[in-house]
Amino acid sequence: MNVTTLFDTPAAASPPIDGALTIAGLSKDFTVGGRSLPVLDGIDLVVRPGEFVSIVGPSGCGKSTLLRLVAGLDTDFAGEIRLDGKRITGTDLDRGLIFQDHRLFPWMTLEENVGLALLNSSIPKAQRARIVAEHIALLNLAGFEKAYPHQLSGGMAQRGAIARALVTEPKLLLLDEPLGALDALTRIHVQTELQRIWLRQRSTMLMVTHDVEEAVYLSDRVIIMGAKPGRIRRIVDIDLPHPRERSLPQLHRLRDEILAELIQPVPTPGEPENLVRLPVREAM
Amino acid sequence: MTSNLSRIGFGLAPLVALLLLWQAASAAGLFPPQVLVAPADVVAALLAMWRNGELVAHLSISLTRLLIGFGLGAAAGLAFGTALALSRLAEALFGPLFQALRQVPVLAFLPMLVLLLGIEERFKIVVVAIAAFFPVALAAFDGVRGVPRSHFEVAKLYRTPLLPFLGRILLPAATPPVLTGLRIGLTRAWLVLIACELLAAGSGIGQMMEMARQLFRIDVVLAGVFVSGLIGFLLDRGVKLIERRTLRWKAA
Ligand SMILES: Nc1ncnc2c1ncn2[C@@H]1O[C@H](COP(=O)(O)OP(=O)(O)OP(=O)(O)O)[C@@H](O)[C@H]1O
Ligand SMILES: [Mg+2]
User: Fold this and answer.
1) Which residue in A85, A127, A221, B82 has a CA-CA distance of 20 to 30 Å to A172?
2) Where would I find the ABC transporter domain in this sequence (chain A) (predicted)?
């Protein structure tokens, strides 16, 4: 089944998969040196089931913070985050998070690292080994099951982290610059793999990246964030079918447009912003 | 293989040189022969004591003391250091006292401990336990405190149950510094035990040396020096071997 046709059908036709993320009025402050520092301010966002959304924005604008809140690693915030209507109050295996660094445990083999994610899952013990092996193979790591992280290359370790995040089959996968540490060539490889997996599993993806080209290549929508405090400046639709040709001229045009927007000085508050809003197609 | 052998040969060269120098000095008669005995005499003394069972008897007594004292001290150190690392309250309460006491050389406790405990068996075991306690407690504290926040976050993300979290994440993460602490504690305990036996004991390697000194049997004293050095070396190597075995996952 083609995922893009799914997106083109109205939500009223009851989407066959779940993983709808709703963020409403989300604000987050950190206390630094006794002073309260606003990091996220009034974030509203709806991500449809099976959608691939990327977030780009200047360093320090709160992208990682936003993902950590959605993952449930940090529950101290104002506003609401819901997954399929259920309020997020902590971590859960229905949401996966891939960090910028692979965070595999150095004393565990690859298969032990991936298997760790299943310790608290409802999957019967007898099936776990098979599922772990499948996901290792899915990321082209077959043959390295018994390797320790230091025996893997950077790209392989990062693919291992992706396998660990996928093994619980989360409805929503959060990716925090998952390919940031990779060289250009490996990066393109893993991007292609990520897209292949996404088209196969059709889970919702929310990915932070610094690479605008990567964002437009993979995503249905790209969110441009502004800093101080972090908020959504603009949302750009990438209305092209998947899988895409990298050389597509539309992709290049969109990339340039987003880059221009990122370089633009931050508009002063109060001034009307050039907000391109998505037609309201919310799932609920 | 060859390079391994040549490396061992390299390490042994100064030892052989020292022995030759020693042999030459005693042959030249630089010191009275009762004071600087020849290496050959030391070897003879060692062999004689080995054959009549004296060496084994003293050695097993010393090693038993080490085992009991180190076992108690290391266990207490592990528990104390871990508690201090995990509980802010425990750290606030006992941290300063611990940091102050660990600066005191163990031998400085001896006069007071002799008064309190006498010079019997329990005295030596307590001293050995104290010697082991501080480095192990410090290593356990640093080891558990040093577990990066990212490890805790991954466990939280996958909702790892408590037991696998302790056994498969926290323990391995803290193991490298703790093993180093155990190794330092063990060799330090051995040093302090020999010193104690030299000062006050009815048996053990140190006492054997002290008795020999009083009888002007410097060959036996030097045999004791050799044996205590060898044991210390083997203990250090033994724990290092365990470290290498358990930490195979570390990059070479
Ligand atoms: N635990 C924390 N305590 C205090 N301030 C924090 C904490 N974590 C993040 N911040 C602050 O929040 C802001 C946003 O951080 P965040 O890591 O979310 O940025 P980011 O958009 O992911 O940046 P980058 O692109 O560089 O990764 C920064 O100003 C940072 O200093
Ligand atoms: Mg970040």
Assistant:
1) A127
2) 21-254
